[in-house]
Write a structure and sequence with these properties.
The protein starts with about 25 loop residues before the first strand and ends in a 9-residue tail after the last helix. The protein folds into 2 domains: about 120 residues, Aspartate Aminotransferase, domain 1 (Alpha-Beta Complex); about 210 residues, Type I PLP-dependent aspartate aminotransferase-like (Major domain) (Aspartate Aminotransferase, domain 2, 3-Layer(aba) Sandwich), CATH 3.40.640.10. Helix 5 links the parallel strand 5 and strand 6. The radius of gyration is 20 Å and the shape is globular. The C terminus is likely disordered. The chain contains 11 helices and 12 strands. It has about 350 residues and is an alpha/beta fold.
Length: about 350
């Protein structure tokens, strides 16, 4: 189905905590709290002595390739996953792109900006936002899907994603949050047997590097070469290259694995707390696999404003195609923060429209 731009595809969670939201407890942005760790900040700082030289990405590219068991020509380093979406939209010669929604909106925005007409496949709440490969039109030559998906937190089985692949089609799987999934279950990174596969990864979420901009693309050498030709010279800075190399080291992978298990436990605690509000119309999408939860609640805009009055920023859901104004996205945080949020949610649900929460 084709739907034109009635959603604000350029709205992202950081808008909730700008300006008058800067003092709020941030449950709107999905960057892991308490990051980057001290050892990573120190490593990045050491790279500043080399700023007089032009960036050399060979070592970082080789490190990322080794992390996924790939040859270096199958890796492209980018200024975050957002740059990769722009490269895909501008460099690949596609005629019938399809984006599976709800998901991160930048892929569609980039395709539209590049002059493409985009078809949408809208996954349904009644189906738990699960992927149905048969819903994608057979003649689509570019398909974009998130895994685990932002904002639904759904982790699609790898086998379901592979059903989307076929000769002559580029299958883009956005795995920006995959390193927050214990064991990276259902990841397609490192696979070389799937025709047209492009996997995108971000290092900004788990490591708290949103301001540094670093991510990468994994694909066949010919696709990587095509995307690289569309990049400007020296697209990734020396500090970002240093971060990329550090974040795929054995030490970092072990730390990320521990963080993924902690996040899973913290998410379970959040979901248990949210279940207590079921009789008041609150419902979380489950099973959830990412470091955030999608929440359906009546009068969500009013609840969101009351939560702001009580000191908490949450992400509005109505800017995602396939969702309406009754949806909110919550980042998973530690148990103390979650308990404080649940108390605030209790108050927010009690407040009639137009009234602030208790002082």
């Amino acid at each position: 189905m084709r739907t034109e731009g009635e959603h604000d595809l350029r709205h992202h969670g950081d808008a909730e905590v700008r300006d008058d939201g800067s003092a709020l407890v941030d449950l709107a942005v999905n960057v892991r709290s308490g990051t980057p760790p001290a050892w990573l900040r120190a490593h990045i700082a050491e790279s500043l002595t080399g700023l007089a030289a032009y960036p050399d990405g060979r070592a970082a590219r080789a490190a990322v390739a080794a992390r996924h068991g790939l040859a270096a020509e199958r890796v492209l380093l980018t200024a975050g996953a957002a740059e990769a979406f722009v490269l895909l939209a501008r460099a690949l010669k596609v005629r019938r792109p399809v984006v599976v929604h709800p998901q991160f909106t930048e892929p569609e925005a980039a395709l539209r900006d590049a002059g493409h007409t985009v078809d949408r496949v809208l996954l349904r709440p009644a189906d738990g936002f699960r992927l149905d490969a048969s819903a994608v039109r057979e003649d689509a030559d570019l398909v974009v899907v998130g895994n685990p998906t932002n904002p639904t937190s759904v982790l699609h089985p790898a086998a379901s994603l592979v059903e989307l692949a076929r000769p002559g089609r580029t299958l883009v799987v956005d795995e920006a949050f995959m390193d927050a999934v214990p064991g990276e279950a259902e990841s397609l990174a490192g696979r070389t047997d799937i025709p047209g596969l492009v996997v995108l990864r971000s290092l900004t979420k788990t490591w708290g590097l949103a301001g540094l901009r670093i991510g990468y693309v994994l694909s066949a050498p010919e696709t990587i070469a095509e995307l690289e030709r569309a990049q400007p010279l020296w697209p990734v800075s020396t500090p970002a290259l240093a971060a990329a190399e550090a974040c795929v080291s054995p030490r970092a992978l072990a730390e990320a694995g521990h963080a993924a298990h902690r996040a899973a436990a913290d998410r379970a605690h959040l979901l248990t707390g949210l279940a207590a509000f079921a009789d008041r119309g609150v419902r979380a999408v489950q099973p959830a696999a990412a470091p955030f939860v999608l929440l359906h609640t009546p009068a969500a805009p009013t609840v969101r404003q009351h939560l702001r009055d009580l000191g908490f920023a949450v992400r509005r859901g109505d800017t995602f195609p396939g969702l309406g104004e009754d949806w909110l996205r919550l980042a998973v945080r530690d148990r103390a923060t979650t308990d404080a949020f649940l108390t605030a949610l209790d108050h927010a649900l009690e407040q009639p429209p137009g009234r602030a929460g208790p002082g």
